[in-house]
Structure formats: structure tokens, C-alpha cells
Amino acid sequence: MKKWLFSLIIFVILLFQLTILDYFKIFGVKPDLLLASIVIASLFFESKWVIVLAVFAGILKDIFGINTLGINVLLFPLWGFIVIELSKRLSIENNFIYLGFIFIITILNSMMLRLISMFMGSIVVSWVVFLRIAFLESLYTSLISPLLFKITKPVLLKSNT
User: Is 122 a domain residue?
Assistant: First the structure.
């Protein structure tokens, strides 16, 4: 039950990211809450459900985003799988480690999107501007993610039905 409820939360996060977060941009950058939700799901669900949720979030982001169609459908499950594997080897229970983890995943996602766009020939900004945007987005996402975790925590801690 909590898996289906979390997929509804992902949809609500998408709506929030598309509408309200536009009013909370910092230097034209807003956090990637969908990516943060996949990292959170990777810490609580088994791998097959993380992949399902990641593909769902990737489809939603690709449909409503400006990136090349299909990139997030491929990258989100990759990040979910990486988080699952790293969480088996590392303890991510400390808040500072969690924030750093979200920061690194978000900046890697931005870099992968940039490299894929570069190879597809659709680059629109210079590397300096890209690095500034990627750093700010990663910082913003990692600072907002504890609030996202606090909101989703009741769903995540429900019995596994």
C-alpha cells in the first residue's frame, strides 16, 4: 500500500515542482524534488519498486520537462540502483551524510544530462554557467530534501501492506 501511496506522492511532487516552486527560484534555479524523492524511495523500498517508482518519476519529468525525451527515464532508475547499492555499504542515517549524498547524486545527474545533451548537439549554455546552475540546483535540492523526507516519512514508515 505504501508503494502506491508513494507513487501518488511523486505525482504531487511533480505538480508542486511545476507550479509553486517557480515562485521559490534562487538565481533562476529550483530544486529537483523528483530526484530527491527517488533517493528517499531507494532508502526504504526494495529494488524492484525503486525501479518502478524511478521510471514513473522519470516519465513524468520527461513529459513535463525541457530535457530530451527519455533521458530521465534512463537516469532515475540508474540513480535509484546506485543509492540502493551504496546504502548497503554505507550508513546514510546521519543527516549531514544524507545531505551530501543528495548533493552528489543531483550534481552527477546534472552532469549526465549535460553530457547527453552535448552528444546530442543541443547545448545552450557554456560550461561556466552550467556549473553554476548545477551547483546551485544540487545545493538547493540537498537543503530542501530533509523537508521532503519529513513530509514523506509517515508514508514510508507505514506497515508494508
Answer: yes
